[in-house]
Amino acid sequence: MFVIIGWVVALACIFGVYIAHGGNMGVILHALPFEMTTIFGAAIGGMIATNPPKVMKATMKGLGTCFKGGKYTKARYMDLLALLFDILQKARKEGLMSIEKDVEDPHSSPLFQKYPTVGNDHHVAEFITDYLRMMVSGNLNAHEIESLMDNEIDTHHHEAYMAVQAIQRLAGGLPAFGIVAAVLGVVNTMGSVGQPPAVLGGMIGSALVGTFLGILLAYAFAEPLAGLLESKVDEDGKELQCIKTTLLASMQGYAPQVAIEFGRKVLYSTERPTFSELEAHVKKK
Description:
This protein has one domain (1-285). 82% of the residues lie in helices and 0% in strands. With 285 residues, the chain is an all-alpha fold.
C-alpha cells in the first residue's frame, strides 16, 4: 500500500509542477505509448537475457510481496517464540525423544498447530524441525549445528537477494533504454526535417519524453521496489536468526524461559515484544 502512495505522491509532484509551469501534457500523452513500449520492451528483453528462469520466477514472486503488508509483526514473533518455548519445555520435562513425533509430522502436531501462523509456514516449520531432529539424534554439538545454521541462512539470503539484484540491474538500465528511445525519436525527427517548425518541435519534444520516462521509471519506480524487496529479505532472515539463537541457547543448557529471551533480543526493536508481553503471551497460550 505504501509503495503505491509513494508513487502517487511522486507523480503528483512531478506532473503538478510541470502543468503549473505551463507544460503541455498533450505532448507527453501523445508520445507515452510508443516510448513506454520501447523502454519496457528493451527492459524485459534485457531481464530475460540476464537472469535464468528461477531468478525471473523469484523476481515476479518478490514483486508481488511488495504490494502486500508485512507479515513479520509483533504478534507473529510472539507466536514463534511461544511455539519454541512449548517445544523446548516438553523436551526438558519429558526428554528429547518426546518431541520426535512433533518433529516428524509438524502438520499434525498439537504443538505446531496451536500456532498456525508460524506452524503452517512451510519454511519456518522445516527450519525448526530439521535442527530439532539433529538435537534429538545427539550426533552434533552446538558449534557444529550453529555453523550449519549459518550456512543455511546465508544460502537462503543469497537466493532471496537474487531478485533484489535483478530489479537493481533493471533500474540501472532504464535510463539507458530511455536514451535509446529518445535517439530513435531524434532519428525520426531528422527524417522529417522539411516539416514546419511547429511539427518538428512537437517531434523533438516527443523524443525527449523517452529520456524523461527512463529516468522516472528507474528512480521513482524500480529503485524503490528493489529497496522495499531488500527490506523484506532482511526481515525474512531475521526470523531464522531468532529461531537459531533460541535453539542454540537451549543446546547450551539454558532453560526454555531464558532461551526464548535470547531469541527475543535479536529481533528488530519495532517488532520485538517486551519481556512482559512475551511472558504474558506464553502463559496465556
